[in-house]
Amino acid sequence: MRKIKVLVVDDSAFMRKMLREILSSDPDIEVIDVARNGKEAVEKVNLLSPDVVTMDVEMPVMTGIQAVERIMKQKPTPIIMVSAYTVENASITFEALDRGALDFITKPGGPISIRLKDVKEKIIEKVKAVSHVNVRALKTPLKRGETLKALPGDMEKIVVIESSTGGPKALSYIIPRLPGDLRAGILIVQHMPKGFTKPFAERLDKLSKLTVKEAEEGEKISSSTVYIAPSGYHMKIGEEWIIHLTNDAPMHGVRPAADITMLSAASVSGKRTIGVVLTGMGKDGSMGVREIKTRGGKVIAQDRKTSVIFGMPKAAIDTGCVDEVLPLEDIPEGIVNMVAVK
User: Fold this and answer.
1) Given a cut of 60, is residue 87 above it in pLDDT?
2) What is the pLDDT of residues 101-122, one digit of tens each?
3) How are beta strands 298-302 and 273-277 bridged, if at all?
């Protein structure tokens, strides 16, 4: 089997050595070269055509964000950002995702991390996952359109949106296009490392007319508000639409899991539940969409062409419980229309 060719980009010689050792320990991965800054990264991507790039955020000559933007314009390639675990770097990392990077890994212990091997399995897993992405979806630039207008509706709804790899960029397109007076509370389950969901919520809040926040234990779901499940906690919906956060065992290897949110939302809101399954690997959400459909709710799945990874949408579609399969650019309007349905 052909090995996955990886270019490692970091201004620290120590970090380049660590990443090379970690990735080379897997028989399916070959580190074909390293780069010390963003400028070298752009040049080597054009010259070597790697399958995946791991990209440091802060570097001299050209930053990781600048390099991501250049690479996406010149030769779209799956890029994983390797970021220090700080609020400031979280903001920079989300900007990189907005420019086209697919995913990110946090360095435990800071920019020069002697504990990088603590996340060895996660690094290898993410490199393998993004090596199979839909490169056509990477090439398609997303221009944020006008905010849509709400349609009249008789009942408040709950919308559960799930996403994983490629999700932050998709959500950064969808949420700002939804009207500020939407008669629905929106619950987002985005698979994301600990400490990054709150900065992500704050970023979306600045872009949107809806209120966007990290979900808190015991708060009641309100219309025109978006609640993002905190990293490391499942988000369940109880009677009277009260949010409960639990650290129960992971489901499908993840916590939060969308299935848990969808199942609980459908049980308390029935036909007033809308499920939306976006890009991502695996089958999380497939149980939830069945329950939503069984109880009279509606389901949207992102189509193959615009999904970076079609795993979760495909698993949902294969259940036979999806009402609409839509390209990313049509999903905001699809949500608005379903919220208005009696």
Assistant:
1) no
2) 999 888 776 556 667 777 899 8
3) parallel
* Catalytically annotated residues: 164, 191, 284
Mean pLDDT check: name the lowest of 85-94, 132-141, 224-233, 262-271.
85-94
pTM recorded for the entire structure: 0.91
Q: Please, what are the domains in the chain?
A: 4-132 (3.40.50.2300), 157-340 (3.40.50.180)
